[in-house]
Amino acid sequence: MNIFNELSEKFNTDEPILIEDIEKMYPQRSRPWIDKAIKTLVDGKQLKRFSTGVYYIPRKTILGDSVLNPRKVITKKYIQNSQDIYGYLGGTSLLNSFGLTTQVPNVITVISNNESTRGRKVEVGNQSVYLCKPPTKITKSNFKTLQFCELIRLIDLDKLDSIKIKNLENYIKENNISLLSISKYCSVFPDSVSKKILGGPLIEKLAQ
Q1: Using one digit for the tens of pLDDT, what is the confidence trace for 71-97?
Q2: C-alpha–C-alpha distance, residues 137 and 8, integer Å
């Protein structure tokens, strides 16, 4: 069994490989066996350790081995992988992704199924992350709606210019967000969210 070849077939270079990923690949193997196999690959410089439980296959460059981007690790651990979606951005990070603020946050806010606290700060490489548990379980089918409700919670719709309102309307249309889909989740958000939606400039687009 050549573990490195099997990892190379499953994962690209500079792609986070979580210890859980490796355990799933070898369900019949014990954790000590897996730890020893990983150590052998790390010692042989075929695999690099990013942090506890996070590894990657480095890309060789003329300056040496590549360095894994912390944002890739954040995405893999807390937001999504190739099969599932289990998180989304929150706070200033979310506002920035929608172009509703020019402020680039030093701390990335992530709302994730993989977090059980109301909020805590962790370090992922050199990037600070503020993790929060979601108001309800995040899935592929609801994350766009939950993210939209979180966005509405954060903003004052009356202060947005016509261009920003139009961008939100496009998001609603492109992601099939409606009053019906929002009604399923409004109860898990503060009352202010439904009040902003019902009394705001997006109600016509949501009602279509």
Answers
A1: 999 999 999 998 899 999 999 999 999
A2: 32
Write out the DSSP string of 112-124.
ETT--SS-EEEEE
State CA 183 to chain mean position distance: 24
DSSP bridge pairs for 121: 130
The token duo for 65 is 């081995």
Cα–Cα dist 117/132, whole Å: 6
Note whether 59 and 52 are within 8 A (CB). Answer: no
Q: Give the CA count within 13 Å in the CB-facing half-sphere of 200.
A: 23
Which two three-digit tokens encode residue 34? Answer: 């897996």
CA distance 199 to 208: 16
What tens digit of pLDDT does each residue of 83-133 get?
899 999 999 999 999 999 888 899 999 999 999 999 999 999 999 999 999
Q: Map tokens 């099997």 to a residue.
A: 6
